[in-house]
Amino acid sequence: MKVFKLIATLLDYPDDDFLAELRAALGETGAAGLVAAADESEILDNIERATVARFIECIAGRDALELQGDYVREFDMTAEHSLHLTHHLFGEEKTRGPALIDLSEFYRSHGLVVDERELPDYLPVMLEFASALSLEEASVFLCEIRKVLTVLADNLEKSGSAYAPLVRIVENHASLTRLAA
Asked: In this structure, how many other beta carbons lie within 10 angstroms of the beta carbon of residue 115?
């Protein structure tokens, strides 16, 4: 399920190495080809694939410093847009700590070791974990955070963020009803 890994990468900080790799990959396959290769299991529908491809084209065409500055303003300086999902549930309360520990232990029990520089509730980390699961397991895992994804997507949409559609796609796949269809 490389598509969740791709979305995780797109939601992460756009450092220079990532942007260079993205631009090189685009030169080989184009955005649509890059998305198709990541979505080999055809998890996304045509509209979602096109949305991700447009996002890739948009960020690949931007100046790196401008994109990085916008990313910091978007996610690090606006609490309502935090990609650390327990922040939306607990804020900075002491009760957030045990939730982070539980999540770290859950990852560890499934063989994922999270980079110590990142909190386990960081959406790109959660999507990287989901990418290692089966579609059913990923949907169940993401279903647990669906309400927070909805809040985050709504907040990003209200501000006109280019990242909102990516979060909305994840939210759409965080549903057990999709599995039944």
From this structure: 10
**Calpha distance 59→100 (Å, rounded):** 31
Q: Is the dihedral of CA 49, 55, 60, 64 positive or negative?
A: negative
**Sign of the torsion formed by the C-alpha atoms of 171, 113, 136 and 44:** positive
Domains of the chain: 2-180 (1.10.3480)
Q: With H, G, I as helix, E, B as strand and everything else as coil, classify residue 90.
A: helix
**118-166 per-position pLDDT tens digit:** 889 999 999 999 999 888 888 889 999 999 999 999 999 999 999 999 9
Q: Give residue for tokens 């685009």.
A: 26
CB neighbours (10 Å) of residue 101? 11
pTM for this model (two decimals): 0.90
Tokens representing 53 are: 């491809």
Residue type, 134: S
